[in-house]
Amino acid sequence: MNNVSYHKAIALLHQVSTKNGFLASAENTSNYQRVWARDGVICGLAALASADEKLIATFKKTLETLADNQHEIGTIPSNVLISEDKTEVSYGGLAGRVDAVTWFIIGVCQYATCQNEPEFIVKYKTHIEKALMLLNAWEYNNKHLLYVPLSGNWADEYITDGYVLYDQLLRIWALKSYNIFAKSEIFAKKIKDITYQVECNFLPNSLGEKYHEKAYHELVFNKYLPCSFSPSGYKTQFDAFANALVVLLKIGTKDNQNQILEFTSNVASETKLGLVPAFWPPVFQEEEHWNLLKNNCKYEFRNFPYEFHNGGSWPMVNGFVGLAMLSNNQTDNAAHLLEKINLANAVDDFSFYENFNTATQAPNGVAFCSWSAAATVLIHQSLHNNFKIIF
To answer: pLDDT at position 298, please?
Structure first.
């Protein structure tokens, strides 16, 4: 099953490869027939893992397309549509996409590292440093944590806003990736400062002045880090993607990381799919944040309980969970999770759906989703060919 799934995933990545970069899906759905920052970089990481020269070339084109359409103030496009007669650039929908900026920096640096092309960093040094300056501005209070609007990242119809854990971690990863080349004391200090603030405000029993003392001391912590906080307090859902990044970036103590992985495995084992939901538990209609969730959609409401971001299961997210397991020497757990990802990707003759209803196992969203394929490639190559992403 693993080898068949792997080759099917590689075939889909080839199918979405264009002269301008990776598309989000091979399905003829207008908004997915674009080069996306986060989707493209995640597919690009899979391309590097595969060592497939054509896919790696597509990754390079993805990064070039994003760089060519960087806004003058430093914003990286959420997505770009390039056709014979027009180019359309989007920096976000209901809100701008903060994570497009960090994924771009990560992508350029990971490509340069894995391909041993430091000249690629030189080419895009100005783009990267302009983007990093923009991230500084998005702190607003100059206290080292990004302030992210509702709908401001990949979970664009979910309830997270303010100091969103996922975005802080991507910024740390981006800075660490760039500082491999820059070797700057300024960037090294910034990495240390952001990490300190994440540990201070998202971990229990931590030392230091809190952003929101009242909310922090009223919070009942679980075995994972909460997904976000803002002036209105903390949102406490388990964000699987963010907590996987906590483990991969070695945030907190070894005990913190072990507890996260234990919780993650337990949640996955209790679902029919055997996958980790993106956010858990779901928000239900009678709960405090339901109206916030219900109204955060540009076209149609999709975040019913157990679906999409509201407790739905995404192969892409589970790909990073698997990498976190491997980083903690949980090879058997990662191999088991890969089997579950492959089973999900194989539904309807390998339709590579975007996500699944965690309660019913029914597929949701777009089919032939390229980053669902990327999840298989990343874990497979990490398990069987010792591929390593730089964190």
So the answer is: 84
